[in-house]
Sequence to fold (353 residues):
Amino acid sequence: MAQVDPRADVALMAGYHSPQLDVDVRLNTNEAPGPPPAAFTERLAARLAEVDWHRYPDRSYRALRTALAAQHGVDPAQVFVANGSNEVLQTLCLTYGGAGRRVATFEPTYALHSHIARITGTEVVEGERNDDFTLDLDTVAKVLADADPVITFLCSPNNPTGMVEPEDTIRQVLAMAPGLVVVDEAYGQFAPWSALELVDDDTPLVVTRTYSKTWAMAAARLGYLVGPRCLVDELDKVVLPYHLDAMKQIAGTVALELHDEMEARVAAIVEERGRLVAALTDLPVDVFPSGANFVLFRPRARAGADVWQGLVDRSVLVRNCASWPRLDDCLRVTIGTRGEDDRFLDALKEVLA
Ligand SMILES: Cc1ncc(COP(=O)(O)O)c(C=O)c1O
Fold:
């Protein structure tokens, strides 16, 4: 086949990688520590048996949209759902970004915000966070005034730092942003407050959420946003017809029926996070405050990459952020089961000894 060149900017991109290794304890991708409740799989199997498989699914996924809207106390027309919150972010960039337009991020933050924006041909302006990973509002004001971004991305709790943006910060960024503010709340249910309460039809704010973490449904690839109706109308034009298959629509709806069980699991993870943080605090590492289902830490006297390798040698995998920009020597550990977390802590103690 004759050589066909990709877009020049795509040819230069590195792609997004999240390496997996064959280990006993996998605490590197912020998944839930266990599967959804048994009632989920049972109900899902029963409902799937009723699907008209020869028909296209409901294009506007009314049942799922209505159930999500009821859960958040908003109108179904304020909800947009896609194949993972990454696809929600991509649809936002396809709709509002593109050639000649810019988005702003504040680093370090979730790498996919800038990656997805670039894939859609949108320029990315990267502002910096303070050394303690908080946002400096003067820096934000300067970046937004210089860049005039169509989307300002925030992430709360922020991945990979785990830190929650205070409500006042989100309000102030909203007041100064020239375009849309997107608050990525992939880990929102683990945090003490949510920007969802600021969403209404007159505010250029959207909050994105995912089923991948709290709902223990990373395999389903399901995420959504809550935002103004007029924005959802535009996204509906851009997304592919029938983008949400029938299985996904049913899985998302069935999960919401088990809201109480899921909330109990979130509470258990938050409690386990407290135990893990307390144990880490006794070790020679700096721990960053987390409102998520993971914790970022930095060994004080050892190179992060060496500590990561020492953990892998003991069959424990955490996320190696040691060489990421602005995250020198940092490692990120997902909250697992009590047993997994003990394996991690024992291995870490050995490595640091
Ligand atoms: C901050 C953040 N946003 C979005 C996502 C993507 O979630 P999804 O599985 O819904 O695409 C992740 C996944 O790790 C994440 O950390």
